[in-house]
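Technical note accompanying the year-one report. For the benefit of new consortium partners, we illustrate the data format agreed upon in the data management plan: each record pairs a sequence with a structure-token string. No post-processing was applied to the example shown here.
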Amino acid sequence: MPEIYKHGTYGVLDETIIATPRQSGTVPVYIGLAPVHLINGWKEKNVVNNPVKINSLEAAQKQMGYLDTWDPCTLCEAFFVHFENEVETAGPIIAINVLNPDIHKKSEATTTTLTLVGNLAYIESTTIIIDTLAIADCALGVDYTAEYDFNRKRVVITKLTEKLTSSSSVTYNEIDTASIDESTIIGKKTDEGIYEGLGCIDLIYPELGLIPGVICAPGYSEEPDVYEAMLDAAHEINNHWNAMVNADIPLTETSLDDVILWKKTNGYTSEFSKVFWPQWKLSTGEVCHLSVIAAWRMSVTDLENNNIPMESPSNKQIPGGKQYFGEGSTNRGYDQNTMNKLNAEGITTAVLWGGRAVLWGPHTAAYSYEDTTDPRAIYDSGMRMMMYVLNSFQEEHADEIDKPMTKALADTIKAREQEKLDALVAVGALIGEPVVEFSPLEEAGDYVEGNFEWKMTQTPTPPNKSSTLRAAYSTAGFSVYLEDENEEEGEEE
């Protein structure tokens, strides 16, 4: 029965429903800092040097905290781009936070006196480690509660007993991120089972069952040591999976020639990566790294293609804004044609084109128009398709490991992989006639060891990078002026 007798029409304002972002098969992984110090019980949540799956901004705030100021909390940028942008939301993402409030904190505690307004007191701060907050002669949960208001960026203390007064002394610790640098992001993975920073990527598949798709470290990937570590971490993850690396070129380079030189000099040329310049300032004022926007755009584009990475994120819509070159820069930006100079050297950018904002550049970082390039390394979509096929094979046939390798099983695996290749041709992800074959091994000892191989050849479909119409001027059209005269002469005859 209803709680009360009803007779008439009624209206009830229910809880807000947060729409769940579309779930992409491409999983971006972000390494950086999150404001976990503002979360009650952050230690119990296991949010330091541990991969956390995030599906929405609400989930990010509950699990890792969220601030709309992204310095120093770089992971908040990823949370915003994936779940708050104006075009389309897409998840999940994996966030690896390296900020440890137990370590990265000021040596001296902060002490102040509360000011009560009714039963409430406030501490304006984005650096407070909320779990360290203590009020003299009062007990948390008995005399007061303390929660962080992420919207107003303050701790809200609620009075529960008369022991809490305006003269109560409060003490707390604050974070200090000065010691966090590229080495913290790089982290480590030890034989003793210690995982930190990029080393935590090896925990994603065993613990979450997700295959990393693209690796990002916004604000840190412009450091060459971090870039190299990202490449190492993304290659054969768990000795199996391959992921793309998205990295940025620093804004210290102020001309297109300087940007190209910096890329080459610092070795940002791996076929397993895409590199970006400059940054992107949204219409709402936020400044984003293009590496992050591209990772989001990859997720959305792959989702539109049934989670097959067959299409480049280039020339796909991104949130409105403009090119950003740093605080105080007078550079008003470049058009599409000018930015082709960067594209020709394997650098992806963003432009305004046809009344919308788009990423611009379909190449991997290995591409250079003037130099000979391995065909597989020309396009991001081609490289990602190669990774996709390899990852798919390993994931699908994992359950067959340690089963008797009969001729029937070998033929079954071959037939299944050929079926998948043919399906990729049917949807336009591959062209031609890709082939998979059971590969005879040179030495019988390999069979004795239980090692078997299949070989596959495939051609990822190239993007329509340019379309040209050749138009020629013709004098043939002048014949229309002579048609009437010719007709008259014919009538006279």
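Partners are asked to follow this layout when depositing records. The chain has twelve helices and 24 strands.
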